[in-house]
Design goal:
alpha+beta, six-stranded mixed beta sheet, Nuclear Transport Factor 2, Chain: A
Length: about 300
């Protein structure tokens, strides 16, 4: 029992990371991983020769089932849907950071993944983010290895046009964001606009609870003016706080002690290309409590 618990505890961040990338919801991912633990504790630990493979397969299958149900609910979602943002540890400032290890956790990437059907999403993530072999993917999908190769190939093709093109080191993104945040705090609209790409987009998720734009806003100067407008209400206690959101430096916007939005940013290292503004209070609850996630 102790060995099974130690094994599961060691692998839990990796399983949670897989389920979160599948579902875009940390709360749902935690439910999936808890279900996997119950199955592992009751039967899997005694039967599995390869614990990591057994747990990855079980997590993937449960996440696929959960995602199928979630997609039906999201079809009725009010407004634009964005994944639940999570506070993560700062990306390590090492040479390996040049490879952009956290890119598959970013809000930009998770938003693109929503275009994939559940099985395709699982196959793509297992192969590309978790380096699973096709035999393992075949176990998850209950298909042949050849069929799984085709699923991954088609998923890559489907994502190629929408996937974020720029995979810059976290340090370059951090430097850009610090300049942008300094300009925002100083109320310098010109500097804010200069750091936005002309074709930048902003997507907001209010969940039908908080007002936001029903369609993406396009245009760096327009977005800069929108963000700048909040500085005109400093008497209400505006506070901007830098935070690592889904592996990248973003911004938490408070009025007084109340968290009003978590903003994730996508950049090319020189200009901001996209802003993802999460305003749905249900999806902000965990961040408001200061919870940090460990996602393998």
């Amino acid at each position: 029992m102790d060995g099974a618990l130690d094994c599961f505890t060691r692998l839990r961040p990796r399983l949670l990371g897989l389920a979160y990338r599948m579902l875009g919801s940390l709360a749902e991912a935690e439910d999936v991983v808890q279900d996997v633990w119950l199955g592992w504790n009751e039967a899997g630990a005694a039967q599995a020769d390869d614990a990591e493979a057994w747990l990855a397969v079980a997590t993937s299958r449960r996440a696929i089932d959960r995602l199928r149900r979630a997609r039906a609910e999201r079809a009725r979602y009010v407004g634009l849907w964005l994944p639940e943002p999570v506070l993560t540890q700062d990306a390590p400032a090492t040479p390996e950071d040049l490879h952009e290890a956290a890119s598959d956790l970013s809000v930009a990437f998770l938003t693109v993944l929503e275009r994939l059907a559940p099985q395709a999403r699982a196959a793509f993530l297992l192969r590309e983010a978790f380096d699973a072999d096709y035999a393992q993917i075949a176990r998850v999908l209950d298909k042949s290895e050849a069929a799984c190769r085709q699923i991954v190939h088609r998923a890559k093709a489907q994502l190629r046009e929408q996937q974020p093109r720029y995979r810059v080191p976290a340090q370059a993104h951090r430097r850009l964001m610090q300049r942008f945040l300094d300009a925002w705090n100083a109320g310098d609209l010109g500097a804010m606009s200069a750091l936005m790409a002309d074709s930048a987009t902003l997507i907001g998720d209010g969940g039908g609870i908080v007002a936001t734009f029903p369609e993406p806003m396009v245009g760096g100067p327009r977005i800069a003016r929108l963000l700048f407008a909040s500085t005109l209400r400093r008497e209400r206690g505006l506070r901007l706080q830098a935070a690592t959101i889904n592996g990248r430096l973003g911004v938490l916007r408070y009025f007084g002690d109340a968290l009003k939005s978590a903003q994730a940013y996508h950049s090319d290292g020189e200009r901001i290309l996209a802003v993802y503004v999460q305003r749905n209070p249900h999806k902000l609850r965990r961040i408001a409590l200061g919870a940090t996630a460990r996602l393998g």
